[in-house]
Write a structure and sequence with these properties.
alpha/beta; TIM Barrel; 8 strands; globular
């Protein structure tokens, strides 16, 4: 039984300084591949360095809404150059975050819209960050009318919001939050997502699932706990579920179909 962590941040503190150990633990529980997300231009360079070093780390690059107020002149051209590479598999994470409002909302919208245009230019999938901004995010996506697949990563919204995302034809990826005791509505979301539009992620080093919550930074090995919870909610055999969400992740991102079996090259 093998898994892919469809969204993680291996360049962040808590993981980067012990990466070989982290990847070894992941491999030991069947997590063979990780999709590593760059959240600004500088971070994207670090992600690319990791993907060059490890054949089972797959790069995605974008500007997180928290960073939208920090973009400098020429950032669109620079990001376009990065995501044009054959070894970068999607654009993102991009979107809107009205919970923290670390960036002005108008700036967030401008940077989001610009990245949707970049994704259209390079014809690559789109990874969405949406927190307390459901209506605006869907409106911007509707206006952009992307033809590439779109995933709402780390979905923690309501069932009605999830159904609107599904009705729009987009994907949903779930984190360890689905395992939390108070996440009954999110578990209902997990049950209702079409099987061919579902992915599982850690968003590590954040949001460690039960039963390892708060014990250490989250890491790719823990995607197994989240996957097991979702399979149980859906009434699916765990091995069949792992096979399906792995295939979904490869299909969504267009990852190499050989799916690396061990860290390193």
């Amino acid at each position: 039984m093998t898994w892919i962590d469809s969204h993680c941040h291996l360049t962040y503190d808590g993981l980067a300084e012990r990466l070989d150990e982290v990847l070894d633990r992941a491999a030991a529980v069947g997590v063979t591949d990780c999709v590593c997300i760059g959240t600004d231009l500088k971070n994207a360079v670090r992600v690319l360095e990791l993907s060059d070093q490890y054949s089972n780390i797959h790069a995605v690059a974008g500007v997180h809404p928290h960073e939208a107020g920090k973009v400098e002149k020429g950032w669109v051209e620079a990001l376009t150059g990065i995501v044009s590479r054959g070894d970068v598999y999607a654009v993102g994470e991009m979107g809107l975050d009205y919970h923290y409002d670390f960036a002005d909302r108008d700036a967030q919208k401008r940077v989001f819209e610009a990245q949707l245009a970049i994704a259209a230019d390079v014809a690559k999938p789109i990874v969405i960050h949406c927190r307390e901004a459901h209506v605006d995010t869907l409106e911007i996506l509707e206006a952009a009318a992307p033809t590439s697949p779109v995933v709402f990563h780390c979905f923690t919204g309501t069932l009605n919001e999830a159904l609107e995302i599904i009705d729009a034809g987009y994907w949903i990826s779930l984190t360890g939050v689905v395992t939390f005791k108070k996440s009954d509505e999110l578990r209902e979301v997990a049950r209702r997502i079409p099987g061919d539009r579902l992915m599982v992620e850690t968003d590590s080093p954040y949001l460690a699932p039960e039963p390892v919550r708060s014990k250490r930074p989250n890491e790719p090995a823990y995607v197994v706990h989240t996957g097991r919870c979702i399979a149980e909610v859906r009434g699916e055999d765990i091995e069949a579920f792992a096979t399906r969400v792995r295939a979904n992740t490869i299909r969504f991102y267009g990852l190499p179909t050989h799916a690396a079996a061990a860290p390193g090259k």
